[in-house]
Amino acid sequence: MPTDPAVTAMMAVRNRVTLMDESIRSVLAQDDPDLELVIVDDCSDDGSWESAQAWGDRDARVRALRMSRPSGISAVRNRAVAAARGHYLATCDSDDLSHVDRFRLLRTYLDHHPDVIGVGGRIRCFTTDPATDGWLPDWHFGLADGRLPFHFSAGMLRTDAVREMGGYDPLLPVAEDLDLAYRLATLGKLVEVPDLVLDYRVHPGNVTGDLRVRERANLRAQLRGLRTMHGRFSARGYLVLGQSVGRVVKTSTIPRARRGPG
């Protein structure tokens, strides 16, 4: 590229060869073409790495990188953050579909709101086809409620702010986005807008296999957030926190799952 792009779309991939092509196409089809797509493969063994390389050969906006060993989602995303040339960062999961106007809408908002360091749109869930089996989730968002301010896979962040906060915590196997959101909130506003910008694919691969690890990581991120917000959670936030504690206690008796290939 002759100049740095406005937006870096970062895509973490591990064994998603059957889904990633559609996700990549949705990124490259944006009506705001001032972008690059950084694909970081976490040592896939199903052909995902070869597919990422092929995309890089076909489109100069695509850069394919690979971890030297399986490293987990936080380390993979940090690799993409380090490589990013864009002023803004957009998380693009390898199984989701970005709407064609996603980058334009979110980039325009950030351009016009310098006090906002992250903005996200709404998502539509689906299993096979968003047009026929899509539905709007009833998930609630809000840092004071112990939740993300918006779904990060439907968001856009200022690259410099993410780097200033040190990126994602490599010790968190999940809930790494929630942890980062609380830290980013110390720098500026995180805002959700009403625009529908992403189709979120619901499938078994969404869920981390080890339930105990997932619940502990989520609680850890929430407790960090509570400290960051100086205890100023909402009533719902304290309820959510209590529920997280209960799930950790409940799952503490579950034997640790064996680490699988994915």
Explain what you see:
With about 260 residues, this protein is of the alpha/beta class. The protein is about 35% helix and about 20% strand. The protein has nine helices and eight strands. It has an eight-stranded mixed sheet with strand order 3-2-1-4-7-6-8-5, sandwiched between helices. Strand 1, helix 1 (about 20-30) and strand 2 form a beta-alpha-beta unit. Helix 7 (about 175-185) packs parallel to helix 8. The longest helix is centred in the C-terminal third of the chain and has 18 residues, at about 210-230. The protein is globular and about 50 Å long. The two termini are about 35 Å apart. About 40% of the residues are buried. Residues about 255-260 have low confidence and may be disordered.
